[in-house]
Design goal:
By secondary structure, this protein is an alpha+beta fold. It contains four helices and 14 strands. The chain folds into two domains: about 90 residues, Diaminopimelate Epimerase, Chain A, domain 1, CATH 3.10.310; about 110 residues, Diaminopimelate Epimerase, Chain A, domain 1 (Roll). InterPro entries: Phenazine_PhzF-like.
Length: about 220
């Protein structure tokens, strides 16, 4: 098996939970899209990152069934592992900063794959949802505390690739932040935590557009 690191991205404040991510630091050891897709399928994580240039932060992202131009939790995890100030993805350059034990990335909502954002009336409703049959990619969410920007969410990729539910999904959190136009603290899955903020600082309140920058941050640990 190809050497790789396994990280947990978007852990809670106590370092628990988080979405597992595989990072192949020597991307050259797996050349070509078909070989990378095969390895991502074999590993079975929701995403696998191949690092093509660690100094420049050049990365390539795959789910078990497709290549992604951008994804949130792979970028946060790769940025933490590589210690770089930016990442280069097929979608564009993702800037990185660190503060208070968190790694933050800044990306555009237009880079995120399409997601259905489905609001529910309460956190209890979200927690009680069964996994839907394969089909659309659904981000189910509800306010836990609207005044404080606290949200309960679950993510159902609907791809039929063995990943029935995503533990923590940065791209969907980015889209929800653009939709609501405000900073959020999202508890997803079993208890993973995603922090977000519209950018740049000082933007007036209100919904942001697809080309506006959104920051997504979280804690990362080795699995």
């Amino acid at each position: 098996m190809t050497d790789h690191n396994v990280l947990r991205v978007f852990c809670d404040p106590d370092g628990r939970h988080g979405n597992e991510l595989a990072v192949v630091r020597d991307g050259a050891s797996v050349p070509g899209e078909s070989g990378r897709q095969e390895l991502a399928r074999e590993l079975g994580f929701s995403e696998t990152v191949f690092v093509d240039d660690p100094e420049r932060g050049l990365i390539d992202i795959y789910t078990p069934t497709l290549r992604l131009p951008f994804a949130g939790h792979p970028c946060v995890g790769a940025a933490w592992l590589l210690g770089v100030p930016r990442l280069v993805t097929p979608a564009g350059v993702v800037t990185v900063h660190r503060a208070d034990g968190l790694v933050w990335i800044a990306a555009r909502a237009a880079w995120a794959p399409p997601r259905t954002l489905r609001e529910y009336g309460s956190a209890a409703e979200v927690e009680a949802l069964p996994v839907p049959p394969p089909g659309e990619w659904v981000y189910a969410w509800a306010w836990q505390d609207e005044a404080e920007g606290r949200i309960r969410a679950r993510a159902f990729p609907g791809r039929g690739d063995g990943i029935d539910e995503d533990e923590a999904t940065g791209a969907a959190a980015l889209l929800l932040t653009a939709h609501l136009g405000r900073a959020l603290t999202i508890t997803q899955g079993r208890g993973s935590q995603i922090l977000t903020a519209p950018g740049p600082p000082g933007r007036p309140a209100g919904r942001t557009g697809a080309h506006d920058t959104i920051e997504v941050g979280g804690r990362v640990r080795h699995a």
